[in-house]
Amino acid sequence: MIMYTQTLSALSLGLLLTACGGGANTEATDAQAAAEATALSKTYAVNVEATTLGWMGSKVTGSSHNGTIQISEGSLSVENDTLTAGSFSIDMNSITDLDLEDQESNQKLVGHLTSPDFFDVATHPVSSFEITSAEPMEQADADGNNYNVSGNLTIKGIEKNISFPAQFTATEDQANLTASFSIDRTEWDIRYGSDKFFDDLKDNVISDIIEYDLSLTATPKQ
Questions:
Q1: Is-above-0.90 flag for pTM?
Q2: How many helices, marked H, and strands, marked E, lie in the chain?
Q3: Which pLDDT score, from 0 to 100, does residue 103 have?
Q4: Per-residue 3-state assignment (H helix, E strand, C coil) for 172-222
Q5: What is the structure's pLDDT at 25?
Q6: Closest of 24, 38, 212, 14 to residue 129, by C-alpha
Q7: Are 218 and 45 spatial neighbours (Cβ–Cβ below 8 Å)?
Q8: Rounded to a whole number, what is the largest CA-CA distance in the chain?
Q9: pLDDT tens digits, residue range 140-153?
Q10: Could you give the CA distance from residue 191 to residue 1 in angstroms, rounded to a whole number?
Q11: Contact indicator for 218, 74 with CB cutoff of 8 Å
């Protein structure tokens, strides 16, 4: 579910979420067992048309790009307005760039991001996120986050656990989950332009950090 890039011709590439919130970098750890819905949990199906996932990335020189990726399906489990479990899938073929107006440059960037240099979409067309724990905070933080969420993020077939603050609300008719967070792309073997693995890149170094903004809306499953 996610992304980054470097220089194509005169293009400087990078990836992350639209209107990225600049969430703190999330340390990746070993995958954990998925959370299970309780016997009394109510299932909400993700409304993919009302859900957004943005990406943004940058070079060390400061230039950046941003775009979106589509959530293809997912669900949240809720008991007494409390989040208990959930997961969603990300269609990696849906990667778009929003800041490059020149269509040729835009297509080159997207083509590079979907190539084996980055997300290798032909081999790994779907990324995913599965909640392993969702702990309500005693009090919401300054950004309105009221949960600490952990989950297994799978990109390029590599599954790692990450944790981040999120805002969750639920009513009888709708559930909403929003979060801003960052990952180190190299943890998922996305190494292109990383000075951890390549020397003499100079101004072509691409930041290892990818930022995401998730706004997920779900309605009761029929």
A1: no
A2: 1, 12
A3: 97
A4: CCCEEEEEEEEEEHHHHCCCCCCCCCCCCCHHHCECCEEEEEEEEEEEECC
A5: 57
A6: 212
A7: yes
A8: 57
A9: 999 999 999 999 99
A10: 16
A11: yes
